[in-house]
Amino acid sequence: MHKDYSGFDEYRKGFGIQELFTVNSVGIVTARDSVFINSDKKRLLDNINEYYNIVPDNNLVKPITYRPFDNQLIYYDIKRIERPRNKIMRHFLAGDNLGLITCRQSVTNSWELISITKHINDDSFVSNRTKERGYVFPLYLYSFDDSSERQPNLNPEIIKEIEAKINLQFTNEKTDDKNTFAPIDIFNYIYAVLYSPSYRVKYKEFLKIDFPKVPYPKDSQQFQKLSAFGETLRKLHLFENVTSSHQLALFPAKGSNTIESLNFKDDNVWINKKQYFEVVPSEVWNYYIGGYQPAQKWLKDRKGGTLSSDEIEHYQKIINVLKLTIGIQKHIDEEGLIDDNKRN
Predict the structure, then answer these.
(1) Secondary structure, 3-state, 182-199
(2) Which of 17, 83, 200, 318 is the most buried (most CB within 10 A)?
(3) DSSP state of 293
């Protein structure tokens, strides 16, 4: 198969994710997920009690970004978890934070290895394929003194270069001053770039072999437009104010709500002989984030279980988020924000 390396000179002019976020690490590996991770707090504490014969500490139960759109709870005992990555994860436990998650290598011909977290995260959150280990890049680093102050986890030399490109002044925290930009704006900009289909296709050979390089913004207009798209994607993927759609993933039939088997046919997802989610577009059903197809993965992980009303609504939200994500990706490319040949 022919490999296109023609864009390398342009690609290498960008900044590497690991060069910008200088403090980073692979995600948590418990080595015993069935003991340390669960969606139900009581079951989680019971598992710890039974496995270790101890009285569990409630304070060690923390939220974890486990799989796409599937946050769980972890018993975060750094003395018992095999690889707790505490030097990095503590920055998510100390206060509000965001993390970009991606992989250093890709083993497929397409690239979708990017997601987001506001919690500590599992090593296989983005992908569980061989070699596709998930690295987390926190936006802020906390001081861990009495002040609880935080500083951007951003390379100042790269920030200076971005300042010069967009003619705006960098601030450590977001303000209302339109002449400034903040860490969250950079985060949003990167997130939009990495969700651009044209970027993924154009640089796919380079994305397979190392962390992504992101092009420097050409001007403030491009930076702000992409940041706006990235903000929308970020909020969607973190389920901030997300609702279900009245036109997607309807659940019209009454029954046991038990996932006996999965069968996708004519844009319907059947979970048993009587019940199904109606109007799940094939592009959504087959859509990848990282190494997973979230519309399928989330249900497969609950096979044999019974969906609660909250879980049914959560799945409906997943379908809406994926549909909206696909639309935003198309808008990014339609405006030519990555591909100069399409820009006005």
Answers:
(1) CHHHHHHHHHHHHCCHHH
(2) 318
(3) -
Confidence of residue 147 (pLDDT cuts 50, 70, 90): low
Instruction: Supply 286's token pair.
Output: 């087959």
Q: Which helix (H) or strand (E) holds 169?
A: strand 169-170
pLDDT in tens, 13-48: 999 999 999 999 999 999 999 999 999 999 999 999
Here the tokens at position 220 are 């403030």
Q: What b/e readout covers 143-170, taking b as 16+ CB neighbours within 10 angstroms?
A: eeeeeeebebbbbeebbeebeeebebeb
Per-residue tokens: 189: 């900009």
Confidence of residue 343 (pLDDT cuts 50, 70, 90): very low
Q: Residue 263 pLDDT more than 80?
A: yes
Q: What is the pLDDT of residue 246?
A: 92
**All residues at 6 or more sequence positions from 1 whose CB lies less than 8 Å from its CB, including other chains:** 109
How many independent structural domains does the chain possess? 2
Question: Among 76, 95, 100, which residue's Cα sits nearest to residue 86?
Answer: 76
Q: What spatial distance separates the first Cα and last Cα of the chain, rounded to whole Å?
A: 34
Q: Are strands 99-103 and 114-117 parallel, antiparallel or unpaired?
A: antiparallel
Please check the confidence at residue 206 and state whether its pLDDT lies above 80: yes
DSSP 183-242: HHHHHHHHHHHHT-HHHHHHTHHHHTTSSPEEPPPSSHHHHHHHHHHHHHHHHHHTTTT-
Q: 302 and 210, same structural domain?
A: no
Same domain for 180 and 257?
no
C-alpha–C-alpha distance, residues 164 and 218, integer Å:
10
Give pLDDT tens digits for 87-109.
999 999 999 999 999 999 999 98
Range of the domain at 285: 243-318
Task: Specify whether the backbone of 69 is left (phi greater than 0), alpha (psi in -120 to 50) or beta.
Answer: left
Residue 44 lies in a domain: no
Same domain, 110 and 196: yes
Residue after which a domain boundary falls, among 209, 226, 241: 241
